[in-house]
Each structure stands twice: as structure tokens, then as C-alpha cells.
Design goal:
310 residues, alpha/beta, Spore Coat Polysaccharide Biosynthesis Protein SpsA, Chain A, seven-stranded mixed sheet, 7 helices, 15 strands
């Protein structure tokens, strides 16, 4: 895939996971056994043939550096394909933390080579999803879009205020309105945090307003203004996608895996933590000759090389 680069946002800090993120970034959380949350984004990008991927990290970066490495698990260790991990810039003076997602992108613009007319995918490394980025890039280019917002109809009957909202023409898919986490949801369609920018539009949006104020929040201070004044489209995505916000979502996602309801793992996932075979799932298991009384295990997952003993 020519003239495409991707930036994976994986540096956030999340307090909703307690001890699970005490020593690791959220994107490094284990999921479905030996996988990590970031494996979903990197596997999707690798399968689409995106040749250049930057992973922006900040909070507890060691956990992601150890896992991602040079990207070999996703075939990003060759001459034509490159993965680069991007911690906060260390310059001649003091190191400064990224002030937000937009600030992180602005400091790493040289990686995407905007002068080459590159299309830039920006996505989260903390979501569980399976998506065809090649199809999204084709959609984006056919419409000569400045910005494409990937939108999905909200699954819950109760509208949440934790998502960005998208309103678009149902026939043409041209975006009429986008607002990040509005207090009063105005549409059934939510942004899943995946954007494709024309590089020139992204660079211009990251430069800020005429008063010299630089944007730090990408959806609020960059995506919103572009969607109001430039050629913006909505790519309709039907899933699967899961926003793992806290321990409740994390627990429910694994329960869905055990029950067979989850559809997020139907595709090949890359991970440096290779396993000789997938985990074995059973809806129930009886234990013969228990040590004390009777015992029955329900909804279990047995990992490779593990044993059940009594």
C-alpha cells in the first residue's frame, strides 16, 4: 500500500483497571490469554499492508517496549515495512511529556513524510476490533477526502456520553456534524477513534488557530474544526469493536469469549508471545474424585501447557 502511514495512540493512562495497570500501560494489558490490547491495532494494520507504523507511548513505556520490540511479530522488521516506537522527545534541554494526542502527533510529523502526500491513519492501540484498513483507505481516496471518520451505530439502547458523535447524510455519507463527547448525544452514530487524514489537512489542523494556540486534544481541537470546514466523510463500520474502558468491560469481554459470543478474535492476531496452539475453551467441566465433596467448574478456559489437577 503506497503513501500510507499509521500512528497508533498507545500512551494513555487509565485509572479504571486498578492493579492491572499499576506497572503497565493500558495498551499492554493481557487479553484472551497471551495477547495484548495493542495486538489488535498492529495486526489490522499489518494485514492491510500499511508500510509505516508509529506507536506513540508515554505512560509506563517499558511494558510496551518489551512487547512490541521492533515489530517482528507483525512483519515490521523488514526493509519495506517499518515500525517505530515514539516516546516523548528527548532533546538537548529538558524532556517534555506529550501534552495530548495532538501534541504527540505534531512532535512526530517527520515520520509520516507529509511532503509526499501521504494518507495518515490515526487509531487507538487500546481497543479490541477487527477492521479492514485497506478498504477504508480506498473509500477515503475515492472521495478525495481531507478526513474520514470511522463511525459505528451505538449498540446500547442507552446513549453514552463517553463517545464522539457523528451525523452524516445517509445517502452520500458526507459528514454534517462531528462533536467529541457531547453532553447531549445528537446521533446514534459514534466515532470509534479511527481517522484517516490527508496529510496536508492533518498538518494544517495541528498548527492551531490564528491566535497561536496549539491544539493538544486531537478529536476536540483538530477533528472537530476539520469536519466543519473541509471535505469530511463517514466510513460506516459494522464491527466487531469493543471499547475496553474499565474492569467491567474487561471482565465482560472475557466472559463473551468463554461463552462464544465474542466475534473480535475470528481473525489472525500477531503477538510476540507465540503459542503452539490456541487456548481450549469448555462451557463446563466436571472434576472426577474431588478431594473434598463434589466440584464442578463452569465457563473455563485452559491455556496451552496448563493442567487441571485435583
Amino acid at each position: 500500500m503506497d503513501r500510507v502511514a499509521a500512528m497508533v495512540l498507545a500512551g494513555g493512562r487509565n485509572e479504571g483497571f486498578g492493579v492491572l495497570t499499576r506497572n503497565r500501560a493500558k495498551a499492554a494489558l493481557p487479553y484472551a490469554g497471551h495477547y495484548r490490547l495493542i495486538d489488535f491495532a498492529l495486526s489490522n494494520l499489518s494485514d492491510a499492508g500499511v508500510p509505516r507504523v508509529g506507536v506513540i507511548i508515554q505512560y509506563l513505556p517499558g511494558s510496551l517496549l518489551d512487547h512490541v520490540g521492533i515489530g517482528g511479530a507483525w512483519d515490521y522488521d523488514g526493509v519495506q515495512r517499518r515500525l517505530k516506537v515514539m516516546p516523548p522527545f528527548v532533546g538537548v534541554g529538558d524532556t517534555e511529556w506529550f501534552l495530548g494526542s495532538a501534541d504527540a502527533l505534531r512532535r512526530n510529523l517527520d515520520f509520516i513524510h507529509p511532503e509526499r502526500g501521504t494518507d495518515v491513519i490515526v487509531c487507538s492501540g487500546e481497543h479490541v476490533y477487527s477492521i479492514d484498513f485497506a478498504e477504508i483507505i480506498e473509500f477515503h481516496r475515492q472521495r478525495r477526502a481531507d478526513l474520514t471518520i470511522v463511525a459505528m451505530r451505538e449498540q446500547s439502547a442507552r446513549r453514552s456520553i463517553r463517545f464522539g458523535r457523528v451525523e452524516f447524510d445517509p445517502d452520500t455519507l458526507r459528514v454534517r456534524r462531528f462533536e467529541e463527547k457531547p453532553p447531549a448525544p445528537f446521533s446514534d452514530w459514534i466515532s470509534i477513534g479511527v481517522y484517516v487524514f490527508r496529510s496536508e489537512a492533518l498538518v494544517e489542523g495541528l498548527q492551531g488557530s490564528l491566535d497561536g494556540k496549539m491544539p493538544n486534544n486531537l478529536p476536540k481541537e483538530v477533528v472537530e474544526p476539520i469536519s466543519r470546514g473541509q471535505n469530511t466523510w463517514a466510513y460506516v463500520f459494522e464491527g466487531p469493536w469493543e471499547y475496553v474502558q474499565d474492569l467491567g468491560d474487561y471482565y465482560q469481554g472475557h466472559m463473551d469469549l468463554l461463552s462464544g459470543d465474542a466475534k473480535n478474535l475470528h481473525r489472525r492476531l500477531g503477538s510476540p508471545n507465540e503459542s503452539p496452539r490456541p487456548a481450549i475453551r469448555r462451557s463446563s467441566a466436571g472434576v472426577l474424585r474431588p478431594f473434598v465433596g463434589s466440584l464442578r467448574l463452569d465457563r473455563i478456559a485452559r491455556l496451552p501447557r496448563s493442567r487441571l489437577r485435583h
